[in-house]
Q: What sequence folds into this?
């Protein structure tokens, strides 16, 4: 098997209200709305995020995003009106966490703090 693209999937209770929050998170609107209840953001030829309306599973997703560096990204999120947590140091990298309105966990991971 040769994997060409990975779609990260996040479940939400209300797609339309969640699109606004994720547009702030990603700094852009979704690229596609391929079917009812689904919105997609594309970041490269192989990295995409799907936001799917599923009230029963909303709040159970975790999305991890790799960014470089982390401190400016934290400031961008705060400027967008989101509430990221503090930058936390791990063994060889840094993370920052926040939750979307449904309670899904979004983790930013980076090898660089500043």
A:
């Amino acid at each position: 098997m040769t994997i060409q693209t990975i779609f990260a999937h996040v479940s939400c209770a209300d797609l339309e209200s969640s699109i606004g929050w994720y547009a702030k998170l990603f700094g852009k609107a979704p690229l596609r709305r391929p079917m009812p209840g689904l919105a997609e953001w594309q970041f490269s030829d192989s990295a995409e995020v799907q936001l799917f309306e599923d009230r029963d599973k909303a709040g159970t997703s975790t999305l991890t995003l790799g960014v470089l560096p982390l401190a400016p990204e934290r400031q961008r999120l705060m400027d967008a009106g989101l509430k990221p947590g503090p930058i936390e140091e791990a063994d060889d990298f840094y993370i920052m966490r926040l939750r979307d309105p449904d309670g899904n966990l979004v983790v930013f991971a980076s090898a660089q703090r500043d």
